[in-house]
Amino acid sequence: MELKNAMLELLRRASTDLAPDVEKAIRQAHKNEDEGTSAKNVFGTIIENIELARKASTPLCQDTGSIICYVDFPVGESEKKYREALEWAAIEATKLQYLRPNAVDPITGKNTGNNIGINAPYMHFHQWDKPEVRVRVMLKGGGSENVGTQYRLPDAALKAGRDLKGVRKVIIDAVHKAQGYGCAPGIIGVGIGGDRVTSYALSKEQFFRALGEKSDNPELAKLEESLLDDLNKLKIGPMGFGGKTTVLGVNIGLQHRHPATYYVAISYTCWAYRRKTMIIKGSEVSYD
């Protein structure tokens, strides 16, 4: 398949076909809620929406998000061809209404109308030793982006020190402050360490981990598991209506930091957790 068309198909799938692990978590959350509650009804509506979007190949949500793309490619490949292919695909996907035009000039307020602009789509490139190419894309909704935040430890107001206990406090504070905004139930991506920019970047890359996939670091894995339980005890529930499920997963990554800094970036994504991966091996293209 031609690269441009493969990219277009990747965007279509990301916008219309929720990942199996996310759908499984939502169906389980629906089962867990009590009959006759607002939470039960909200999850029922979400599940119906998932099924209709897949059947009709229409977007899961009216906000089809900002396009964020990660490309891993072998030595000798060109970044330019992947950028050109994704931009072409974004324009076509907008015409076909798989994507809503979401690229707005901050000064003029003008929407470009095709999802193309400065750093739009945003692309990360990484060269690796494997012969195949991996293209990962996420469609990051604006509402959930607005409830993401970053903390600088120590945080005197929260009595959060520079350790995992402090990290735990600020994550709970962030989800409590969100109060269902950002279209809960959310998935929480956390980046510990680095500078302000890289901690956010690390937090968003955690969204490519499947729900239920444990961190390789035993201490982080333990923290992820306990946070999932404790955040759901907040009982904020889907869309903030109350209920047993406030978050579907917590994925935490870490990186080394400067001795004088300790940043914790918390990214939040809504239940429409749209991510897809494409693998290109020679002339063969496959999608997850």
Low-confidence stretches: none
Helical amount? 25-40%
Give the helices and strands as they follow along the chain: HHHEHEEHEHEHHEEEE
Give the strand order, joined by hyphens, for the main sheet: 2-1-3-8-9
Q: Helical region count? A: 8
- The domain tally reads 2
Proportion of β residues? 15-25%
Rg on CA atoms, Å? 19 Å
Tell me the total number of β-strands: 9
Structural class, by secondary structure, is: alpha+beta
Overall average pLDDT? 96
What is the distance, rounded to the nearest whole angstrom, between the alpha carbons of the first and last residues? Answer: 16 Å
Shape: globular
Largest sheet: 5 strands, mixed
Characteristics:
alpha+beta; 38% helix; 8 helices; 4-stranded mixed beta sheet; 288 residues; globular; 2 domains
Question: How would you briefly describe this protein structure?
Answer:
GO terms for molecular function: 4 iron, 4 sulfur cluster binding; lyase activity; metal ion binding. This protein is an alpha+beta fold.
Describe this structure in words.
- This is Fumarate hydratase.
- Residues 6-278 form the Fe-S hydro-lyase tartrate dehydratase alpha-type catalytic domain.
- With 288 residues, the chain is α+β, with helices and mostly antiparallel strands.
- The chain folds into two domains: 3-13 and 60-141 and 274-287; 143-269, no CATH class.
- The chain is 38% helix and 22% strand.
- The chain is built from eight helices and nine strands.
- The protein has helices at residues 3-16, 20-32, 38-56, 79-95, 142-146, 164-178, 196-205, 218-232; strands at 66-74, 122-128, 133-140, 149-152, 186-192, 247-254, 263-269, 274-281, 284-287.
- Strands 2-1-3-8-9 form a five-stranded mixed beta sheet. A four-stranded mixed beta sheet has the order 4-7-5-6.
- Strand 8 (274-281) and strand 9 form a beta hairpin.
- It is globular and about 50 Å long.
- The protein starts with a helix and ends with a strand.
- The mean pLDDT is 96.
